[in-house]
Amino acid sequence: MLCGSAFAQQLDTLNVSYASVTGSRIPLWIAKDAGLFEKNGLHVNLVVIAAGNAAIGALASGDVEILGAPGSTTMVSAAKGLPFAIVGTFGPSAWKLAAHPSITTIEQLRGKTVGISRPGTTIEFATKRALQKLGFTPGKDVNILATGLAESNKRIMVMLQGKMDATLVSPDNLYEAEIKGWKLSILADLKELGIVTSASDLSAKRDFLKNQRQRARAFMMAYVEGIWYGKANKNAALASFRKHMRETDSRRLEALHKNYVVDYLPARPFPMEDAIQADIENLTPTVPEFRGRKVADFIDKSILADLEREGFFSQLASKYGKQ
Predict the structure, then answer these.
(1) Inter-axis angle of helices 234-245 and 250-257, to 10 degrees?
(2) Which domain holds residue 53?
(3) At what angle do helices 273-283 and 122-133 cross, to 10 degrees?
(4) What SS3 state is found at 247?
(5) Domain's final residue, options 189, 219, 242
(6) Which of 94, 101, 98, 76 lies closest to 86 in space, CA to CA?
(7) What is the pLDDT of residue 191?
(8) Residue 76: its pLDDT value, please?
(9) Do residues 79 and 289 lie in contact, with contact meaning Cβ atoms separated by under 8 Å?
(10) pLDDT tens across 92-110, in order?
(11) pTM for the complete prediction?
(12) What is the 3-state secondary structure (H, E, C) of 59-115?
Protein backbone atom coordinates (compact mmCIF):
# COMPACT_ATOMS: atom_id res chain seq x y z
CA MET A 1 0.00 0.00 0.00
CA LEU A 2 2.83 2.38 0.85
CA CYS A 3 4.51 1.64 -2.47
CA GLY A 4 1.24 2.31 -4.31
CA SER A 5 0.80 5.61 -2.49
CA ALA A 6 4.36 6.67 -3.29
CA PHE A 7 3.83 5.81 -6.94
CA ALA A 8 0.64 7.87 -7.08
CA GLN A 9 2.46 10.86 -5.59
CA GLN A 10 5.07 10.68 -8.35
CA LEU A 11 2.45 11.08 -11.09
CA ASP A 12 1.69 14.45 -12.64
CA THR A 13 -1.97 15.40 -12.17
CA LEU A 14 -3.78 16.49 -15.33
CA ASN A 15 -7.41 17.61 -15.44
CA VAL A 16 -9.37 16.73 -18.57
CA SER A 17 -13.00 17.61 -19.21
CA TYR A 18 -15.47 16.40 -21.79
CA ALA A 19 -18.82 17.87 -22.71
CA SER A 20 -21.18 14.90 -22.49
CA VAL A 21 -21.31 11.20 -21.74
CA THR A 22 -21.50 9.79 -25.26
CA GLY A 23 -19.84 6.85 -26.98
CA SER A 24 -17.33 9.09 -28.76
CA ARG A 25 -15.46 9.56 -25.44
CA ILE A 26 -14.28 5.96 -25.51
CA PRO A 27 -10.54 6.71 -26.06
CA LEU A 28 -10.43 8.66 -22.79
CA TRP A 29 -12.25 5.94 -20.88
CA ILE A 30 -10.08 3.15 -22.24
CA ALA A 31 -6.87 5.06 -21.52
CA LYS A 32 -8.10 5.64 -17.96
CA ASP A 33 -9.31 2.08 -17.34
CA ALA A 34 -6.26 0.41 -18.91
CA GLY A 35 -3.78 2.51 -16.90
CA LEU A 36 -2.32 4.14 -20.01
CA PHE A 37 -2.23 7.60 -18.44
CA GLU A 38 -0.29 6.21 -15.48
CA LYS A 39 2.01 4.39 -17.90
CA ASN A 40 2.93 7.82 -19.27
CA GLY A 41 3.42 9.41 -15.85
CA LEU A 42 0.03 11.08 -15.46
CA HIS A 43 -2.78 10.93 -12.96
CA VAL A 44 -5.71 12.13 -15.08
CA ASN A 45 -8.95 13.40 -13.58
CA LEU A 46 -11.81 13.07 -16.07
CA VAL A 47 -14.68 15.47 -15.41
CA VAL A 48 -17.85 16.33 -17.32
CA ILE A 49 -18.39 20.03 -18.09
CA ALA A 50 -21.10 20.88 -20.62
CA ALA A 51 -19.86 22.73 -23.69
CA GLY A 52 -20.23 26.47 -23.38
CA ASN A 53 -19.05 29.27 -21.09
CA ALA A 54 -18.31 26.99 -18.13
CA ALA A 55 -16.06 24.71 -20.18
CA ILE A 56 -14.27 27.62 -21.86
CA GLY A 57 -13.81 29.32 -18.51
CA ALA A 58 -12.30 26.15 -17.00
CA LEU A 59 -9.82 25.87 -19.87
CA ALA A 60 -8.95 29.58 -19.81
CA SER A 61 -8.33 29.58 -16.04
CA GLY A 62 -6.24 26.43 -16.12
CA ASP A 63 -8.71 24.43 -14.01
CA VAL A 64 -8.59 21.92 -16.86
CA GLU A 65 -5.65 21.49 -19.21
CA ILE A 66 -7.42 19.52 -21.94
CA LEU A 67 -10.95 20.18 -23.12
CA GLY A 68 -13.04 17.62 -25.02
CA ALA A 69 -15.82 19.58 -26.73
CA PRO A 70 -17.03 20.60 -30.19
CA GLY A 71 -14.21 22.37 -32.00
CA SER A 72 -16.48 25.30 -32.82
CA THR A 73 -16.68 26.06 -29.08
CA THR A 74 -12.97 26.74 -28.77
CA MET A 75 -12.69 28.22 -32.27
CA VAL A 76 -15.06 31.07 -31.42
CA SER A 77 -13.02 31.86 -28.31
CA ALA A 78 -9.76 31.62 -30.26
CA ALA A 79 -11.10 33.92 -32.98
CA LYS A 80 -11.87 36.47 -30.27
CA GLY A 81 -8.35 36.33 -28.88
CA LEU A 82 -8.11 33.47 -26.39
CA PRO A 83 -4.97 31.34 -26.97
CA PHE A 84 -6.68 28.02 -27.68
CA ALA A 85 -5.82 25.35 -30.25
CA ILE A 86 -7.43 22.11 -31.39
CA VAL A 87 -4.87 19.32 -30.93
CA GLY A 88 -6.81 16.17 -31.79
CA THR A 89 -10.21 14.68 -32.46
CA PHE A 90 -12.62 12.02 -31.27
CA GLY A 91 -13.36 11.30 -34.92
CA PRO A 92 -16.13 12.14 -37.38
CA SER A 93 -19.77 12.18 -36.41
CA ALA A 94 -22.26 9.87 -38.08
CA TRP A 95 -25.43 11.95 -37.95
CA LYS A 96 -28.60 10.92 -39.74
CA LEU A 97 -31.58 13.18 -40.36
CA ALA A 98 -34.47 11.36 -38.72
CA ALA A 99 -38.10 12.42 -38.95
CA HIS A 100 -41.43 11.66 -37.30
CA PRO A 101 -42.88 8.47 -38.84
CA SER A 102 -45.66 10.51 -40.45
CA ILE A 103 -43.01 12.06 -42.73
CA THR A 104 -41.79 9.50 -45.24
CA THR A 105 -40.23 11.66 -47.99
CA ILE A 106 -37.81 14.56 -48.00
CA GLU A 107 -40.31 16.84 -49.77
CA GLN A 108 -42.80 16.35 -46.91
CA LEU A 109 -40.33 18.21 -44.69
CA ARG A 110 -41.15 21.48 -46.44
CA GLY A 111 -42.93 23.83 -44.05
CA LYS A 112 -42.12 21.60 -41.08
CA THR A 113 -39.90 22.17 -38.02
CA VAL A 114 -36.44 20.68 -37.53
CA GLY A 115 -34.94 20.66 -34.06
CA ILE A 116 -31.34 21.48 -33.18
CA SER A 117 -29.58 21.66 -29.81
CA ARG A 118 -28.49 25.28 -29.41
CA PRO A 119 -27.66 28.12 -31.83
CA GLY A 120 -23.98 28.29 -32.75
CA THR A 121 -23.34 24.58 -32.28
CA THR A 122 -22.00 22.00 -34.69
CA ILE A 123 -25.45 20.38 -34.70
CA GLU A 124 -27.01 23.62 -35.93
CA PHE A 125 -24.44 24.06 -38.70
CA ALA A 126 -24.67 20.42 -39.79
CA THR A 127 -28.47 20.53 -39.80
CA LYS A 128 -28.59 23.66 -41.94
CA ARG A 129 -25.99 22.31 -44.37
CA ALA A 130 -27.98 19.09 -44.72
CA LEU A 131 -31.20 20.99 -45.39
CA GLN A 132 -29.44 23.10 -48.02
CA LYS A 133 -28.10 19.96 -49.69
CA LEU A 134 -31.65 18.61 -49.75
CA GLY A 135 -32.91 21.74 -51.51
CA PHE A 136 -34.33 23.74 -48.60
CA THR A 137 -33.57 27.21 -47.30
CA PRO A 138 -33.36 26.91 -43.50
CA GLY A 139 -35.62 29.40 -41.76
CA LYS A 140 -37.70 29.84 -44.90
CA ASP A 141 -38.66 26.45 -46.31
CA VAL A 142 -38.08 24.70 -43.01
CA ASN A 143 -38.38 26.13 -39.49
CA ILE A 144 -35.45 25.71 -37.08
CA LEU A 145 -36.22 25.07 -33.41
CA ALA A 146 -33.52 25.39 -30.72
CA THR A 147 -34.44 22.75 -28.14
CA GLY A 148 -31.51 23.23 -25.78
CA LEU A 149 -31.01 19.45 -25.86
CA ALA A 150 -27.53 18.26 -26.81
CA GLU A 151 -28.43 14.55 -26.60
CA SER A 152 -30.22 13.29 -29.69
CA ASN A 153 -32.22 10.69 -27.74
CA LYS A 154 -33.91 13.53 -25.85
CA ARG A 155 -34.65 15.33 -29.11
CA ILE A 156 -36.20 12.11 -30.46
CA MET A 157 -38.62 12.08 -27.53
CA VAL A 158 -39.59 15.71 -28.18
CA MET A 159 -40.11 14.85 -31.85
CA LEU A 160 -42.31 11.85 -31.06
CA GLN A 161 -44.38 14.10 -28.80
CA GLY A 162 -45.22 16.11 -31.92
CA LYS A 163 -43.35 19.28 -30.91
CA MET A 164 -41.07 19.14 -33.98
CA ASP A 165 -40.81 17.04 -37.10
CA ALA A 166 -37.16 16.04 -37.59
CA THR A 167 -33.71 16.24 -36.01
CA LEU A 168 -30.18 14.88 -36.34
CA VAL A 169 -29.73 11.55 -34.56
CA SER A 170 -26.57 9.65 -33.62
CA PRO A 171 -26.29 5.97 -34.64
CA ASP A 172 -26.42 4.66 -31.07
CA ASN A 173 -29.50 6.73 -30.23
CA LEU A 174 -31.11 5.55 -33.46
CA TYR A 175 -30.41 1.96 -32.47
CA GLU A 176 -31.77 2.65 -28.99
CA ALA A 177 -34.98 3.99 -30.53
CA GLU A 178 -35.32 0.86 -32.65
CA ILE A 179 -34.91 -1.37 -29.58
CA LYS A 180 -37.66 0.59 -27.80
CA GLY A 181 -39.93 0.16 -30.79
CA TRP A 182 -39.96 3.84 -31.71
CA LYS A 183 -40.65 4.25 -35.42
CA LEU A 184 -38.57 6.89 -37.21
CA SER A 185 -38.14 7.86 -40.84
CA ILE A 186 -34.50 8.23 -41.92
CA LEU A 187 -34.44 10.94 -44.57
CA ALA A 188 -30.70 11.40 -45.09
CA ASP A 189 -27.24 10.28 -44.00
CA LEU A 190 -24.93 13.29 -43.61
CA LYS A 191 -21.89 11.27 -44.61
CA GLU A 192 -23.59 10.35 -47.88
CA LEU A 193 -24.43 14.03 -48.40
CA GLY A 194 -20.72 14.82 -48.14
CA ILE A 195 -21.07 16.76 -44.88
CA VAL A 196 -18.03 16.24 -42.65
CA THR A 197 -18.33 17.11 -38.97
CA SER A 198 -16.35 16.00 -35.94
CA ALA A 199 -18.02 14.20 -33.07
CA SER A 200 -15.90 16.37 -30.78
CA ASP A 201 -12.34 17.63 -30.52
CA LEU A 202 -9.50 17.95 -28.03
CA SER A 203 -8.34 21.49 -27.31
CA ALA A 204 -5.70 23.09 -25.07
CA LYS A 205 -4.15 26.47 -24.33
CA ARG A 206 -1.18 27.26 -26.53
CA ASP A 207 1.04 28.15 -23.57
CA PHE A 208 0.31 24.73 -22.04
CA LEU A 209 1.37 23.07 -25.29
CA LYS A 210 4.56 25.12 -25.33
CA ASN A 211 5.59 25.37 -21.68
CA GLN A 212 4.32 21.99 -20.47
CA ARG A 213 5.15 20.07 -23.59
CA GLN A 214 6.02 16.80 -21.88
CA ARG A 215 2.70 16.64 -20.04
CA ALA A 216 0.78 17.43 -23.22
CA ARG A 217 2.79 14.83 -25.12
CA ALA A 218 2.23 12.21 -22.40
CA PHE A 219 -1.51 12.81 -22.58
CA MET A 220 -1.59 12.43 -26.36
CA MET A 221 0.48 9.24 -26.23
CA ALA A 222 -1.96 7.68 -23.76
CA TYR A 223 -4.98 8.92 -25.74
CA VAL A 224 -3.67 7.50 -29.01
CA GLU A 225 -2.72 4.19 -27.44
CA GLY A 226 -6.20 4.05 -25.92
CA ILE A 227 -7.57 4.13 -29.46
CA TRP A 228 -5.29 1.33 -30.69
CA TYR A 229 -5.78 -0.77 -27.56
CA GLY A 230 -9.57 -0.43 -27.82
CA LYS A 231 -9.62 -1.36 -31.50
CA ALA A 232 -7.52 -4.46 -30.83
CA ASN A 233 -9.33 -5.49 -27.63
CA LYS A 234 -13.09 -5.51 -28.03
CA ASN A 235 -13.71 -6.74 -24.50
CA ALA A 236 -11.74 -3.83 -23.04
CA ALA A 237 -13.79 -1.35 -25.08
CA LEU A 238 -17.06 -2.99 -24.05
CA ALA A 239 -15.98 -2.91 -20.40
CA SER A 240 -15.35 0.84 -20.62
CA PHE A 241 -18.74 1.42 -22.25
CA ARG A 242 -20.38 -0.57 -19.44
CA LYS A 243 -18.55 1.34 -16.73
CA HIS A 244 -18.83 4.92 -17.95
CA MET A 245 -22.18 4.79 -19.76
CA ARG A 246 -23.70 2.37 -17.22
CA GLU A 247 -24.92 0.32 -20.13
CA THR A 248 -25.86 -3.34 -19.65
CA ASP A 249 -27.87 -4.18 -22.77
CA SER A 250 -25.68 -6.42 -24.94
CA ARG A 251 -27.27 -5.29 -28.21
CA ARG A 252 -26.71 -1.62 -27.42
CA LEU A 253 -23.14 -2.35 -26.35
CA GLU A 254 -22.51 -4.01 -29.70
CA ALA A 255 -23.94 -0.95 -31.47
CA LEU A 256 -21.76 1.39 -29.42
CA HIS A 257 -18.67 -0.67 -30.24
CA LYS A 258 -19.43 -0.76 -33.96
CA ASN A 259 -20.22 2.94 -34.26
CA TYR A 260 -17.61 4.45 -31.96
CA VAL A 261 -14.71 2.02 -32.18
CA VAL A 262 -14.89 0.05 -35.42
CA ASP A 263 -16.47 2.48 -37.89
CA TYR A 264 -15.54 6.02 -36.89
CA LEU A 265 -12.67 6.11 -34.38
CA PRO A 266 -9.51 7.28 -36.22
CA ALA A 267 -6.25 5.46 -35.50
CA ARG A 268 -4.43 8.75 -36.22
CA PRO A 269 -6.58 11.37 -34.46
CA PHE A 270 -5.23 14.49 -36.17
CA PRO A 271 -7.53 17.55 -36.16
CA MET A 272 -10.16 17.21 -38.89
CA GLU A 273 -9.19 20.10 -41.15
CA ASP A 274 -12.16 19.72 -43.53
CA ALA A 275 -14.58 19.96 -40.62
CA ILE A 276 -12.73 22.96 -39.16
CA GLN A 277 -12.82 24.73 -42.53
CA ALA A 278 -16.57 24.11 -42.69
CA ASP A 279 -16.96 25.60 -39.20
CA ILE A 280 -15.04 28.70 -40.28
CA GLU A 281 -17.39 29.16 -43.22
CA ASN A 282 -20.48 28.54 -41.07
CA LEU A 283 -19.39 30.86 -38.27
CA THR A 284 -18.13 33.81 -40.33
CA PRO A 285 -21.59 35.37 -41.00
CA THR A 286 -22.30 35.71 -37.27
CA VAL A 287 -18.75 35.99 -35.85
CA PRO A 288 -16.89 38.62 -37.93
CA GLU A 289 -13.58 37.72 -36.26
CA PHE A 290 -13.47 34.64 -38.52
CA ARG A 291 -13.11 36.70 -41.70
CA GLY A 292 -9.77 35.98 -43.35
CA ARG A 293 -8.89 33.22 -40.88
CA LYS A 294 -7.46 29.86 -41.94
CA VAL A 295 -7.60 26.36 -40.48
CA ALA A 296 -3.96 26.68 -39.39
CA ASP A 297 -4.97 29.54 -37.06
CA PHE A 298 -7.03 27.16 -34.94
CA ILE A 299 -5.02 23.94 -34.73
CA ASP A 300 -1.73 22.64 -33.36
CA LYS A 301 -0.94 19.19 -34.68
CA SER A 302 2.76 19.35 -33.78
CA ILE A 303 2.61 16.75 -31.00
CA LEU A 304 0.89 14.16 -33.18
CA ALA A 305 3.22 15.03 -36.05
CA ASP A 306 6.23 14.52 -33.77
CA LEU A 307 4.89 11.16 -32.61
CA GLU A 308 4.31 10.09 -36.20
CA ARG A 309 7.79 11.17 -37.28
CA GLU A 310 9.36 9.35 -34.33
CA GLY A 311 7.63 6.09 -35.26
CA PHE A 312 5.06 5.98 -32.44
CA PHE A 313 2.24 4.87 -34.73
CA SER A 314 4.48 2.19 -36.24
CA GLN A 315 5.24 0.91 -32.74
CA LEU A 316 1.52 0.71 -31.99
CA ALA A 317 0.96 -1.17 -35.25
CA SER A 318 3.61 -3.70 -34.25
CA LYS A 319 2.03 -4.10 -30.83
CA TYR A 320 -1.65 -4.14 -31.70
CA GLY A 321 -1.73 -4.90 -35.42
CA LYS A 322 -2.60 -2.58 -38.28
CA GLN A 323 -5.78 -0.57 -37.79
Answers:
(1) 120
(2) 2-92+198-320
(3) 90
(4) coil
(5) 189
(6) 76
(7) 86
(8) 92
(9) yes
(10) 988 999 999 999 999 999 9
(11) 0.87
(12) HHHCCCCEEEECHHHHHHHHHCCCCEEEEEECCECCCEEEECCCCCCCHHHCCCEEE
